[in-house]
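Reviewer 2 asked us to include a model.

Predict the structure of this chain.
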Amino acid sequence: MTGIALKIGLTPEHACSYLPAEKERLMVLLEDKYRSAEGYEALLNAGFRRSGNDLYRPHCQRCTACHSLRLSIADFQPSASQRRIKQRNNNIQIVLSSQDKPEYYDLFARYIHARHKDGSMFPATRNQYDNFLLCDWLSPYFVEFHLEQQLVAVAITDPLPLSLSAMYTFYDPAYSGLSLGTLAIMTQVDLARRMNRQWLYLGYQVDGCRKMKYKTHFHPYELLIDQEWKSEHSDEE
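Predicted model (C-alpha cells):
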C-alpha cells in the first residue's frame, strides 16, 4: 500500500482485548473504495482485517504487539501432531456453504458462553454475530464440520482472488477434545490449495496473549513487521 492515500479514522483508546495491561486504538477505513474482494486483499497485505463491513488495523500509541500472520499454501507442512489430529477426525464430514444458517448462530452462542465469558463478545447476541461475521460487500464461506450428522463446528473464511482469510471458528464445547480449531485451519489450507490460492491469512499474532499462540503452530508462517512480510518458523514438532 506504499504511496496510496487512505481516508481513515481513529477510535478512542479502550481496554485491549489481547493484553489487559495495554490500551487499544484502531485505524478504521472511512471510504468505500477498497470494500471489495480485490481491495480487501490489498489491505490484508498491509495489515488490515475485516470486522463485519468495516476494515481496520491496530494503531496503538504505546504498543506494537499485533502482527498479521499468514501461511504460504505451497510451503505449509503440517506437524506430526497436526497430522494425527486430521487422521483422528477422518470421520468428520466437511461441507462448504455460501449462505448463513440459523444453526450457525446457535452454535456460536454456545461457544462464546462456554469459552469466552471473560471476553468482549460475552454475552453473545444475534446482532453481534451479524455485525462481526457477515458482510454486505463480500460473501464469506461457511465451512461446516459434521459428526454423525450433528453440526459440531463452523469456520468462516473470506474468499479473495489470491488468498483465503480466516475470519472466525467456533465449535460445540462438548467436542473440545477433538482439536476442532486446528482441524479448521488445516481444512482451510486444503480448501485454499484446491482453489489455487497463494495465502491463508490467520489474523493477528500477539506475543504475550496465550489465546493467540496457536497460530504459530502452523509453519512456516510469515509475520508483517514494520510493513514487511518476514518468514518465521514455529518450534512445533
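The first strand starts at residue 8 and ends at 10. The first helix runs from residue 37 to 44. We have added this to the supplementary material.
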